[in-house]
Specification:
Four copies of one chain form a homotetramer.
Chain A lengths: L1 E6 L4 H11 L4 E6 L9 H4 L16 H7 L2 E4 L5 H5 L2 H6 L1 E4 L9 H8 L13 E2 L2 H10 L2 E3 L3 H15 L3 E12 L14 H4 L4 E2 L8 H12 L6 E6 L6 E9 L5 H12 L5 E3 L17 E8 L4 E8 L3 H15 L16
Parallel strand pairs in A: 1-2, 1-3, 3-4, 4-6, 5-6, 7-9, 11-12
Antiparallel strand pairs in A: 7-10, 8-9, 10-13, 12-13
Helix pairs in contact in A: 1-12, 7-12, 8-10
Chain lengths: 346, 346, 346, 346
């Protein structure tokens, strides 16, 4: 059994990790880390875990945890892990970081967008960007995996087949994203109260959201060119789910058939990517609770643009599920072990 | 592998059966029956099943299905199964009926409340009321199981430990229930449109809901006396979940400790019953997607009443999950096989 | 023009007062009091008021406000007003208190349930319980009105016609209430986050909610006997609305016709009480945004109980609307001035 | 008093017309037309109107209604009004059409997108496109007003100040829209059931929604050039509200100051347009129940694009409210008479 520790186990992503790992046949959770609920029973914080988890929450002590765990998941605020991670820890245990600390290779860009001084830039080069469908082989060898952001995961996977083939003019790329409210975390803020979110929709972080450079860097690597794009997230009154609607101009001569074929070739062997039948739009509800990303694209001959769409569960493929997928790869397990989660409807 | 057929696979309870059976290691679904979607791909009706179910829907032909299946689940309108079930079918296959046709032993009461002439009353005596926690041994031997109604399941399990011990005056019993909207089914009715249900709550079927006699009969059997109660269901703007708040006067001399102890003794060995810590109220969200029923009780010394509370997922323990639990018993499998569903939060 | 000041204008009840008073032809709001947003523009806190309210928030200074205002609305935490109100203030201005400080005549009961030492018990006798339908004449003469609680308002009005006539056995009275989340206020608490409330229902304050003694006292006055009842509130995933489902045994010989007639007689001349047609259940959505209370009752001959139901908007008739109705009475204006709010559907 | 008739009074837009007209001091509704509920009490269909509307529904007889009414609102399916409207009717009464029949000047485009043969194309030239902020003077003289679509209203008003000044490259214009579910109407369709919409978001009508040509035509007229754009609507789990997020490249040399100034100049005198403070994003909740459109724009110097945002209530400014605004203009009344609706929050 793999011994797993979770730093930040009482946030929503941490809770989802627990839910998934409880059903994983090769993993045992040995450490429920929490800053806010130390010494409290985990099941008192997340009552769904009553009689399933008997442990109490322990402090977020990475050094101590490294002695006990084969793998550590960190679901912590930006900058936290970068401040405490070091070679000693990585020599003892594998780390899968759900924060943004090691996602962006260009540390200047990280520091500019996150407004944080990076405390361990020397570790960035070895960190592997944990988008399994893209970096599978490197992940298998990694000690440190940067689990991708929720928006970048869904955006990248919706756009990648066309970007990689040079089918779209990336200078025209616009990503309009919609997310459920669990993406905002479990912090007690007025803006996230039920009465403020319910019956409401708004854009936020317009032209300034910190997932932008992550998408630009990854799409740039995939396409072999510098990418600058517009990204606008919106907050939707639902618990889970991200929907991406992305727009780009097709390069001259690219046909509808080529577009469809690109997705087919890219994703036909992917366990968690579902290219929907032509004309069927992704809906977040159809992937809820699962590790799937549903994608599709529509070509508009009037404007010569393609509309690329993707839907996933932000807490699963956008956080905990993808982290477990990464863990499976890192430990030589079947990639989908413990991840055969059937989407729940309704 | 057990071959299972589903009549009414495209309703919400049928869809949930498919979701659960896909994760069951000993079952293969061989027949996706549907009245409305014959010849259509099942995954076109329930897009969450895309790439998970390749079958097309077949007509609701019970005779033909009996030749192919080891067990048939019927999630059909009231009266439908009673009109077509017969000894020949039961001699070939086991039947688990999610409708109300065989739940009520007193056929006059069935006909009075359902306003339907029962077409096969001769089969009622052998049908076992499929509340596993109560009728486990008979279910193991049954050919025909009447899967309990959603409200009766949650109500009975919330009240039973006190009723069976004679701790409450059953003539004072009032059950106030709240249900998510999936309980109303997938029929296209104006009353169930998003804009009619959302931001709204109402009582319905006041003093006339058809689950009333089912509760009365079962509580009556458990308590050894005739029970007449008030039951008021309410429609709540959420997809899943039933919450029961039940009220009764405590018999003279019954103490708070006895009340707590009754639940403890009754449920300490039950896999799917969770007696919450003292003072913690059940919430539907904490059991969503799982087969659990969370219960608790509060004694009010001012009024000498006990408030009994229970929460469950109406589509799981209230329908498909309990049906699979019954199937496990009928086939000699571990009762929780395929049912280790961790509640999803949020 | 009546000059009105609001202490606690940035809570949900305070915001609703502003919404209603903006449409009132005889009132001008001169003071937007707030503890948390002093010196900030009110419209920055409540963006719906952009271009409608230009004022900035001022501190909660009752003495200063009494110099400026003809009437003060206090939507403040329990105990706050009792600590600062005095004869001097009441000699200069009228006060309508939306907190519980002056609702309960028996100060011992107030202190026991609220766990607060009452700081100005000498003012309790002159405070009029501001349920307009019940205490209209006293309100007209009052300097200090205790605006009723949301649950007590809806409960009392649903039960009163039968309680006053001695038609029900009050020792059997049970009130099961369901409320939208705005009733929980705008404080930033984890329990009230969108993801915690959405897709969820729970009971809270079981056998201990502080609105219980208020209902008992008022129903006791109406019925001329001591009342002890069970009250269980539930939190529902919607913004607004309270639904009451109350149960009591009918006294011997009381007929269905008498029950209906009681409501008809009591409410036929009431502007804001709507007795629905027989068989139609109240729904919160049908009164949203208005000052109406919709009521109805069903007699159950099987159990000889009556189920009394009521629906209202907790922020209007349950708080701000009723406060304005009180103000109208206190200033000799038509009772419904500024309150002709048509319910908004959907 | 203006006598008003409503054809299609039992749809959501019709119901909202009734709500608004009940509060209008100069209008009396004399005809509640309905295809589905003839002879039924209107308040039985919309229970919020209990005791407010005593009328029964009448058939949709335009000829008869023209004899009785000074103005007719038609909230009917596409093609219906075009099939029955004629010069005789227009000689007797004014008509405000909430359907799309007379919105598009180019009848070929109408027929191509709506797949309907237009039955009265001779009336199109005289129909005035009823966007009050744009066509105020023509509306005052009109007999027939084509009330704009919900998406076009919000989109046009969000984009117009920049389009009219040539500040944006209209060939790059992309409109990503999000709508509450009341926009889908009150028809009983499975897709609009609570359980299908709740906890879900999807795009629909991608590259094919029928509001596209209406926007293209109106923006084209405003800009003096042919416009071809991408429009993608999304269905959001809320009752009311439309949010527009539109993207376009800024023309060379256009500054952030010019962009802000364009909105300021265009809307400073508009009663129902609110340009929010810099940096504040529109939210649908802040305009709910009102006739406001909240707009704002953000310039992104990295991509040289402007993101234009607008929020409104689809049933008010997007349907019934704008219709009443048009009526006020047509009858020489103050444009905002009966429309001083304060947004309701929460």
């Amino acid at each position: 059994m793999i011994k797993a520790g979770i730093i930040g186990a009482t946030g929503y992503a941490g809770g989802e990790l627990v839910r998934i790992l409880l059903g994983h046949p090769e993993v045992e959770v040995v450490w429920y880390g929490s800053k806010s609920y130390i010494e409290q029973k985990y099941a008192d914080v997340y009552q769904n875990m009553f009689r399933l988890v008997e442990d109490v929450c322990r402090e977020d002590d990475l050094e101590a945890l490294a002695e006990e765990a084969d793998v550590i998941f960190t679901a912590t605020p930006q900058g936290y892990l970068a401040g405490i991670l070091n070679e000693n820890i990585l020599s003892k245990t594998k780390v899968i970081d759900l924060s943004a600390d090691y996602r962006i290779k260009d540390v200047d860009i990280y520091e500019a967008w996150y407004q944080i001084k990076h405390k361990s830039p020397q570790l960035i080069p070895e960190a592997v960007y944990g988008l399994c469908e893209r970096n599978r082989e490197q992940i298998k060898e990694a000690r440190l995996v940067a689990n991708p952001g929720c928006y970048p995961t869904c955006s990248f996977l919706s756009i990648y087949p066309l970007a990689a083939r040079g089918y779209i003019d990336l200078s025209t790329l616009i990503i309009d994203a919609k997310s459920g409210t669990s993406g905002a975390g479990r912090g007690a803020k007025t803006d996230n109260l039920f009465c403020e979110v319910n019956e409401n929709i708004k854009a936020y972080g317009v032209a300034s959201h910190r997932h932008t450079p992550e998408m630009e860097e990854q799409l740039g690597i995939a396409a072999g060119e510098k990418v600058t794009l517009n990204f606008t997230p919106h907050l939707v009154p639902m618990n889970r789910g991200i929907l991406i609607t992305a727009y780009a101009s097709l390069k001259e001569g690219v046909t509808t058939e080529q577009v469809r074929s690109a997705y087919e070739k890219e994703y036909e062997k992917e366990r968690f990517l579902r290219l929907l039948p032509e004309g069927v739009c992704p809906q977040t509800k159809w992937v809820e609770g699962s590790n799937y990303v549903d994608v599709n694209a529509v070509c508009d001959s009037r404007t010569n643009r393609v509309i690329m769409m993707g839907a996933m569960d932000n807490l699963v493929k956008g956080a905990a599920g993808q982290a477990v997928q990464n863990m499976n790869l890192m430990f030589g397990l079947p990639e989908d072990l413990g991840l055969s989660l059937v989407p729940m409807f309704p």
